[in-house]
Design brief:
The chain is of the alpha/beta class. The protein has helices spanning 18-30, 33-45, 63-70, 82-95, 130-143, 160-166, 182-191, 209-216, and strands at residues 53-57, 74-79, 100-103, 116-122, 144-155, 194-202, 226-233. It has one domain (13-233): Vaccinia Virus protein VP39 (Rossmann fold). It has a 7-stranded mixed beta sheet with strand order 3-2-1-4-5-7-6, with helices on both faces. Strand 1, helix 3 and strand 2 form a beta-alpha-beta unit. The longest helix is centred in the middle third of the chain and has 14 residues, at 82-95.
């Protein structure tokens, strides 16, 4: 994780260019193993979305805005990158799914308070410094209706692959400035006035590895590929 003097979510924003979103869009449209696993993992932790308003923060090329819209949600994707929203609108049209995409900063959401039932941050928080994460969690709390849920899906800092990246053995993703463990995420949520309702470790898309991750992740931190957290506002907070 970065401190206030390290890289920020804004200083690494240039990593997300047209090629980045085009690659994600191609994986999604083909429904390759990576895309299928990612969608399955997120829907395994999402509460029911039919008839509910879902805000997809840092929506990128729109995977979960589109998928929750397909599942009957009033889906709104929010991203600061124009290239992301252009890609998302193209993919949504090609998929035949109605979804709304809005350009905006998740740290200052262009959304009224108490207007969302579910706020989703899928593959977002690993790109955030601590200060920006705290601001985004505060905004999520502001826009959630009473009884709403915040859902976070992110790589776990404890996984073997991330340990190897930090050691320089595997190539790092320069935008992953905020990799955190389950405990660190839980602490950040508590500081923002949230209580974790459920926590799961979710597998990667890699054959063989995903079997080990499913069987052993609860006991072996090195096999915790993804963390999925569902949180609600602390009662009386």
């Amino acid at each position: 994780m970065s401190g206030e003097t390290g890289p920020t979510a804004y200083s690494v924003a240039g990593h997300y260019d047209d090629r980045y979103f085009a690659d994600l869009a191609a994986r999604y449209r083909k429904r390759n193993r990576f895309a299928r696993t990612r969608i399955g993992n997120v829907f395994a932790i999402l509460p029911p979305v039919r008839g509910r308003t879902v805000l997809d923060l840092g929506c990128g090329m729109g995977t979960f805005t589109i998928e929750t819209g397909r599942a009957g949600a009033r889906a709104i994707g929010i991203d600061p990158a124009a290239a992301a929203l252009e890609a998302a609108r193209r993919v949504a049209a090609a998929e035949g799914v109605g979804a709304k995409f809005v350009r905006g900063d998740a740290a200052e959401l262009p959304v009224a308070g108490d207007s969302a039932d579910v706020v989703l941050a899928a593959d977002l928080v690993e790109h955030l410094d601590d200060v920006t994460l705290a601001r985004i969690l505060g905004e999520a709390r502001r826009v959630l209706r009473e009884g709403g849920r915040l859902v976070i899906y992110t790589p776990s800092r404890s996984h073997l692959f991330e340990r190897l990246r930090l050691a320089g053995v595997m190539p790092e993703d320069p935008s992953h400035i905020g990799l955190r463990t389950e405990a660190q995420l839980t602490a950040a949520l508590a500081a923002a006035g949230f209580q974790v309702e459920s926590s799961r470790f979710l597998p990667s898309h890699l054959p063989g590895w995903n079997v080990l991750e499913k069987l052993l992740s609860k006991r072996v931190p090195l096999l915790r590929r993804r963390v999925g957290l569902v949180a609600r506002e602390v009662a009386g907070g």
